[in-house]
Every structure is written in C-alpha cells, then in structure tokens.
Amino acid sequence: MAINLEEQKIREHPLLREWVADAVRDMIAKGKLKPGEHICETRLASELGISRTPLREAIRLLETEGFLHVVPRRGAVVRDISLKDVTEIYEIKAAMEGLSARLAAHHFNKKDVERLKEINNELARLAEKNDVNRFFKMHNQFHDYFLRASGNERLYLLNCSLIEQIHRLRLLSFTLEGRFEEAIAQHERIIKAFEKRDAVLAERLVSENVMMGYRAVVTKLKQTKVA
Amino acid sequence: MAINLEEQKIREHPLLREWVADAVRDMIAKGKLKPGEHICETRLASELGISRTPLREAIRLLETEGFLHVVPRRGAVVRDISLKDVTEIYEIKAAMEGLSARLAAHHFNKKDVERLKEINNELARLAEKNDVNRFFKMHNQFHDYFLRASGNERLYLLNCSLIEQIHRLRLLSFTLEGRFEEAIAQHERIIKAFEKRDAVLAERLVSENVMMGYRAVVTKLKQTKVA
DNA sequence: AGAGTGAAAATTGTATACAGTATACAGGGA
DNA sequence: TCCCTGTATACTGTATACAATTTTCACTCT
C-alpha cells in the first residue's frame, strides 16, 4: 500500500506539493477533513508521509483556491461552504460562462457545433443509463468546450478554480429528479444559438443554464444540511 | 537602512511571506525584476535578507496571481504582460464589474448615490490639478464602491487580483490626453443609472466604461513597447 | 466556584542542510 | 566543424532543526 502510494506520487506528479494539494482537496471532498477542522501541519505531513515544507506550499495554494482559511500563526482550517459562498460562486460563474459563450460564438464553425451535438447525444445516452458519474464528466466537457473556445485562457482557468470548490455539491445535484433532461434540453437551445452565430443569445442561455445549476445545487445543499 | 527594513517587515506584516510577496511585486512593478528574468531563490532570498522558505511560499502566491511563471525544477520567471494578457484580463474585468454594478443597483440607496457623486466631484477637482496619482486612487475608489456594494466578496477580491497584474499600465494610461474627462463623463452616466435603479443599464455602462479603460491601456502599452 | 496567572506543551514561522535535477561547458570522436 | 558525452556547477525540491508564538491546563487567590 505504502509503496503504491509512493509510485502514484512520482508517476502522476513530479512535484510533491501538487500531489499534496490534490490529496488534501480529496480529503476535504470525501469528508475526511471536516469544515472548521484545524489542520495540524506536523500531523498531516507525517500522515501523508512527507515533510512540512511541501505541505505548507500546498496550503498556500489551497488557501487561494478557497479550500482553506489561514490565520497567521494559528494555522489553517477547512473552510465551510455556506449558501452565501455558493451564491457568490454561481453569480460569477454565470457571468464568466456567459462571456465565454459570447466570445466563442464569434469564431465557432460547423465542426465545433457538431462536437457539441455529439457530447449532448452522449449525455442523452448516459441519462438513460442513469450513470451520474459519467454524465457529470461529460456535462463538464460540454461547458469546457466553449470556455476553451472563447480563446481566453484565464476565463477557463478561473472557472476551473471556482467549480473545484463546489465539486461535491455539483456532483450531488445531478442525482435530483429530472436534472439530466433539463440540462440536455437547455444544451440543445444553446447549440441552436451557436448554430445561428447568435452571440448575445448564447450568452444569455448559458448564463440561465448556469443559474439553473445553481438552483439544483442549492436544493441539494439544503437537503444535506438538514441531514 | 537595514534596521529600518527590519522594522518595516515586522510592523506592517506579521508574516515574512507576505512582506516578501509585496516586495517582489514591487520589484516587478518598478522594473527591478524584468519580464523573462529568472528568479534565483538563493540569491533573491539573501538579497532580501531572509531564507528561502518564506520566499518560496511567496512565489506560490505570486504564481497564482499571475506575476510569475513557475516551471517544475527550473524555477520561476517574471511573466511578461502581453497584449493578449491585457485583453483577457479586461474581458473578464468588464464582465465582473458589470455584474457587480447590476447586483449593487438592486440595493443601492440615496446615500450610496451621494457617495459616488462626491467621489466623482473629487475626481473633477483632481483632474483640474492634473494630479495623476491621486486621480488614479480616487478613480479606483469609485469602482471599488459598487464592487463591494454588490455584496459578493469574491467578486471584489477577484477584481483586485486582476487589476494588480496591470497596475502599472493602468496608472500610465491616465496620463493620456482627455482620459480624465472621459472617465468623469462616463461616471456621471453610471451614477444616473444607479439613481434610476436601472440595474441592466448600470451593468452595460460599467462594462463599456471598463472597455474604454482597456483601449486606453492598449494605447499606452503600444507606446511603451515601441519605446 | 470562578477568574487570573504562569509554566509546559503544541504548533506555526523561519533557517539551514541535504538530495536530486537541470544547465553549462570542456574534451573527444565522426 | 559539428555533435555527442561526461563532468562540474548551480539551482530547485525536500527534510530537518531551531525560534517564536499560541494554546492548554494545573494551580492560586479572591
């Protein structure tokens, strides 16, 4: 076990600090590190089998990503995701994805539209099989497609860092009744807007699509808070 | 001199890594560290009179802020700001500030509008005195006002980290002929939109205002690239 | 009992030491 | 001349050691 871990560290990440950041993100997502919990550098480092130095560098990264809250000389605590956080993130996400759609629409060609249709067809297949995990991944590909096609690299990266913070909630939101179909239908309208090269419409539809995701996530958030 | 430096480190920053980040940002802004230049941790740390540990933690921060580009096992280099970077930043900034104006408009009251008018009057005074530095600061206060009033803390912080990257260019752009007057005139229209509680108009005007700033910065960028 | 105090333990911040990797350059061969 | 290769050097990545600060908790005094 320990040897496999070592191999994974080396194979997938040339740098320990990145592997550690991934590991800690994962521990937060899986609930192994709970919101509000204080992170003791010494202990966590030894648990991960590394020294404090790469852990500390990973903590700086996770701080800017919003996973941890660091108080000088008192260490890092796992940040809780509140409704307010989710709202803030989605407000920004809606504006940014909308912007990316508008920008992408300007230099979208037939092939791009075809690719989006393929993805949406695949989504329909996965919806029938009720495969939440794969649907989620493919769904992200749909959105990533125009985020990248926008030609604005920062836009894509910013969006990544935003959705990473609510990864778990978003995944959960796809277990809601009718969520698949709703998303697919909206995607179809978005594709039509791209086909017509209607940048303004694409922007509006994508923004609305994001805010639908917001409502789904909020629903799920309230369910889990009660539980 | 060295003693004063020590005092400053302690007084204004309880943490060395933050002081270092500020110092390095400053060195980049002042041209002491030039774009493309490789940062040797050992040398820079000893120049700043500290060890490599806090410097390395500062480098992680400056990397996410976009000031440095880090290649694994080859270290950090100072990132150059290209026209593409400026375009990416302003596209995002326009969308984010526009969003903040829309959000802020919903719960703006008379007092808020009065405050914006005061700031704009002050801007007019500073324009007459041709005080670029103070105009710049006051101008930022104008925009910060509704970024904060939006109630979306992330929006404000994200905007801060964006404009920090182009601080120098923005400041320079205010030396352009007619830049003051243009800004003040647009601010007046924005204030009127807030007065009317017209969120959609406020959003559009603020976006346009940002993109005017973009054009000014691009003009200045081209001037300095030639020089 | 409760507030206050002070020493001990735990934890973070910083410096240094060591290991591994990339770069530069000299020397040899085609 | 050009390319290849091996070695020396410089630099980054990681671990560890030390310093400073915060927290804990027993103890005292009111």
Q: How does this structure look, described?
A:
2 copies of one chain form a homodimer. Chain A has 227 residues and is mainly alpha-helical. In chain A, 76% of the residues lie in helices and 4% in strands. Chain A has 2 domains: 2-78, Arc Repressor Mutant, subunit A (Orthogonal Bundle); 83-226, Four Helix Bundle (Hemerythrin (Met), subunit A). The first copy, chain A, contains 11 helices and 3 strands; from the N terminus they run ααβααββααααααα. In chain A, a hairpin with a 3-residue loop joins strand 2 and strand 3 (75-78). In chain A, helix 5 packs antiparallel against helix 11, helix 6 (110-129) packs antiparallel against helix 10 (179-195) and helix 10 packs antiparallel against helix 11. The first copy, chain A, is globular, with a radius of gyration of 19 Å. The A-B interface holds A 14-15, 17, 53, 56-57, 60-61, 64, 72-73, 87-89, 91-92, 95-96, 98-99, 103, 152-155, 158 and B 14-15, 17, 53, 56-57, 60-61, 64, 72-73, 87-89, 91-92, 95-96, 98-99, 103, 152-155, 158. Chain A binds a DNA duplex (30 and 30 nucleotides) through residues 15-17, 40-42, 50-54, 56-57, 72-75.
Quick gist of this model?
The structure is a homodimer of 227-residue chains. Chain A has 227 residues and is mainly alpha-helical.
List keywords for this structure.
homodimer; 227 residues; mainly alpha; Arc Repressor Mutant, subunit A; Four Helix Bundle (Hemerythrin (Met), subunit A); 2 domains; 76% helix; DNA-binding
